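Pair request: fold both.
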Amino acid sequence: MTTTASSVAGRLVLHPGDYHVTDQSITLTTLLGSCVAVCLYDPVRRVLGMNHFLLANRRYAKDMPVMASEAGRYGIHAMELLVNKLLAKGGQRRHLKAKAFGGGNVLGRSCDEQDNFLCVGAVNVRFVREFLQNDRIPLVSADLGGNFGRQIHFTSTDFSVYMRKIPTSQSAHLVEEERLYWKRSLEEHAHDTQQVELW
């Protein structure tokens, strides 16, 4: 995961592929379409963090376990970076709580109930729920799925998340940014797969 986040007066803006963990007074902000963001925090040690990621997969079968897939392994890496960094900052696993957002169907992928394949956003939503359940991290609130983007602000004062829905008609820039990120992720995934050598 890259760290291209930009900071403005107590506010840090995360872009696709970013994550950030801190024990300082701050508001973490991001724009989400098909991507998901997990806001993770330890309210006792007062440490918080957020990531912004998208699972790289073109088509995903509904009956396929996300966690066992290549896309799931990418998501696990994204989540473990966040969790481990938060623990290294003084957080304790038994105190961790999560809030999750995003996974909207804004990239124009098929989400037809008759199709056996999930759209990009739906795969991300399923992954986040499965990961948190498997890691026994309580998901205390969430706004996932739908056909719209979201802008979220995660504040360190009381760990509240403020969310504004963005209609797809008003999120052309967001959709293009995520489409490029998704394409880049697929290309990197294909390159990594080609580099594998069996012994």
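--- second member of the pair ---
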Amino acid sequence: MHEHDHEHAGHEHGEHCDETGCDHEHEHAWTPAKYAVLVLPVILFVLGLPHGGFSKESLKRMLGDSELEGGPAQSVHAKGSLKLQFRELSEAAYLPAKREALEGHTVRLKGMFMRIGDREFTLFRLRMTCCAADAVPMQVRIIAPESLSGLKDRDWVEVEGQVQFHKLAGKEKYVPVLLLPSMDAVRPAAPEGEFDLT
């Protein structure tokens, strides 16, 4: 067995060698460019981009277009304005006491538009707990006083209307409904990303 008598050129750069091999002692400098590549997909994900995760058809299936039981909603006794998050209103549909407390109040909500009929549309956000695969829709049915025009599915809008809760025809399920006082209560809004991460 022969010994290594030769010198390694790396010695002058802080390299130490012995019979077990060479030990590199150089420093690894902070390089932001390396991490930008790793962070970019996360940023796009938070912004809801790319936007092709849910097709129009799959969203329509998730949201449904069932009619409201008892026909079109009528205005109920007004109770003043409330500031609510989209999630609070969506979750209240499952709780009788919450439904009773919120019904009649006026709220303002922002979400994506999905047409159901001439004067009716769904305002929705997608709630994600872990990843896009487990996303579920939070939705509010919107009833306008006149025919809707100039809006496309997935357009972002802000609406202000009176809160009601109605059963879907033929189902034991309540949905939140906003009854709009006029067409001025529907305004275009800046996009926020398809998923609600709050």
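Observation on the second member. The radius of gyration is 28 Å.
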